[in-house]
Amino acid sequence: MRVLGFDPGLSITGYGCVSGDLIRPAIVEAGVFRLTKSGSPVPPMGDRLVELDRDVRELIERVEPDLVAIEGMFAHKDHPATVIKMAHARGVILLAARSAGIEVVELKPAEVKKAATGSGRATKEQMQLSVQSMFDLPELPKPADLADALAIAACALRRHQLGVLSI
Question: Does residue 145 have an active-site annotation?
Answer without folding.
Answer: yes
